[in-house]
Amino acid sequence: MNPRELTTRKVHAALEREPRINIHRHPIRIESRDGAVTLEGEVADVAAKKLALNLASSAAATADGVRGVVDRLRVAPGEARGDGAVRDSFARILLGQPEFRNCTLRMRTNERSLLLHEAKDDAVGEIEISVTDGVIVLEGHVISVPHRLFAGVLAWWTPGRRDVINALALEPRYEERDDEITEALRLALEADPLLEADQIRPRTRDWVVTLDGAVPTEEQRWRAELDAWSLSGVDRVVNRLQVTG
Q1: pLDDT digit string (tens) for 181-217?
Q2: Contact in structure between 28 and 41 (CB atoms under 8 Å)
Q3: How far apart are CA 162 and CA 118, in angstroms?
Q4: Which of 2, 84, 94, 187 is most deeply packed, by most CB within 10 A?
C-alpha cells in the first residue's frame, strides 16, 4: 500500500468511527495528493462538517508528507433555494436582530455592491454579504467578537445555505477572549426560536465550548450544540445538557 492510500484509509477509518458523521448516508470523498488531504461531499450539519475536518487533520498529522486538509465539504440544506433567496433571507434575519440594526449592510451580486441598509452614528460595523452556490460569505468589519461570531451563527440559520465563510474583521483590532465567545453563544441561544435557553449555561476555554444545564427535549439539546458548532473558530463542543422532559 502506498503512502497516499494509507493516509486515505486512516482518514476514512477516523470518520467512520464518529457516530455524528454518517458517511454511509452522506458519503465523503477523501483524496490524498500533493501533501494535502481533500474532503469533498455533503454532510448533514455544521457539527459533522467540523468534526470531519478535525478528525481528518488529526489522522493526516500522523502521515508523512501531509501538510494540511482542504475543505470542500458542504452542508445539506433544509430546503433547496436559489442564491438570491438565500441572500435576501439572511439579510432579513441579520437586520431583524437588535445587535445589527445599526449596522451598514451591503450585498454583492454580479460584481456590484448594493446598499441595503445604512447605519447611523455609532455604527456597529459594515457587512457585505454574497452567496454563490449556497455558500454565504461575510466580509467587512464589526466592532466586537460577539458581533462577528453571532453574524456567522445567523448565516448558518438561513434556509438554503450550504456553507458559511465568516471573513469579518474586528475594527479596532484586539485580542479575542473566552468570555466574548461565550457572550456570542448566549446571544445565539437566546435568539434561537427553537430553544428554551434560560437554563443553559455555556462557557468557553481556548475555543472549546462546554454546555451545562437542562433543556426539555433531546431535540433542543442537539440544537444548542449545533448553535455552538456554528461559531466560527470553535473546534470542539462538550455537551453536558440534561434532558428533563
Answers
A1: 999 999 999 999 999 999 999 999 999 999 999 999 9
A2: yes
A3: 28
A4: 94
Task: Pull the grid cell for residue 56.
Answer: 481528518
How does DSSP classify residue 77? P
Whole-angstrom CA distances from 197 to 178, 187, 189, 207, 221 are 20, 10, 6, 21, 10
CA–CA separation, 226 and 150 (whole Å): 13
> pLDDT under 70 in the chain at which residues?
1
All structural domains of the chain:
3-75 (3.30.1340), 83-170 (no CATH), 178-243 (3.30.1340.30)
Q: Provide CB contacts within 8 A for 47, sequence distance 6+.
A: 20, 225, 226, 229, 237
pTM over cut 0.85: yes
Closest C-alpha to 137, from 107, 114, 160, 110? 107
**Closest-CA residue to 142 (of 156, 131, 129, 130):** 129
CB 164 within 8 Å of CB 136: yes
